[in-house]
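Raw record, unedited: Phosphate transport system permease protein
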Amino acid sequence: MSQTRSAPGTRTAKPVLRRGDRIFSGTARAAGILIMVILAGVAAFLVVEAIPALRAPAEDVPGGEGLTAYIGPLLFGTLLAAVIALVVATPLAVAIALFITQYAPRRIASALGYLVDLLAAIPSIVYGFWGIYWLAPRLVPLFRWLEENLGFVPLFAGPTSATGRTMFTAGLVLAIMILPIISALTREVFRQVPTLHREAALALGATRWEMIRLAVLPYGRSGIVGGAMLGLGRALGETLAIALVLSVSGGITFNLISSGNPSTIAANIALQFPESSGIAVNTLIASGLVLFVITFAVNMLARYVVNRRSEFSGAN
């Protein structure tokens, strides 16, 4: 029986898309282009408005010491608060994700995951009030203990803040705020661990913890890093909670328990913008440009890390 074969060099006809497919494809493409246009517009606005501050003499910039001296402490405070939040939130989020996906019964896991996700729905100003009125006073005894026993460490040199409104407190508040982001992404990655990997480890005699250490954590490493980077991006841009909790005195210091704390870029903009005019506004926008670049870089890094294992499967 003869079979009809395509002649060499002939092109396979492309499938004809239905009208609904064409509309959906065009809408999705337009949405992607619109997002890029908006992002480019925001970047262009920040650059244009920051140019006067970049060209202004040092004495005209708020503080009288130049733009670098103005933004430097703010950038330091932003990174310090975000790093504290990341160090505290990441291990806790991974532990919660492991408990929900590997240990908890299904009903408890579903309810606990829902409660953790609800933390992301709480407004930041509520976190700020909670931090200033409940958390900060209760941390003062801990700060005094740290000063008395670990005062030789620059992080806890003191003198202890009487109100508890310190960089350490601000970092803890940020940690609670970014916890749902890291935990949600980590849980989804842990759920995608191939069952074959887990069962093979258990069949070889591994305990549950050994199975998690050998099969689950290596598979989810990129998800953990990606979730941590996304949480870091959220922490870098937080405004109201930091503005309420942190007692600002300016300057660069690693002391986490004293009343002398650098502010963050976002909190400084929120506090100073209503009363600013002229070159002061351009200076604040220039600091916002720095924050925009850092946040954009962090999110791009997170996306790169997450996509590194997009083609990973249980077969390889």
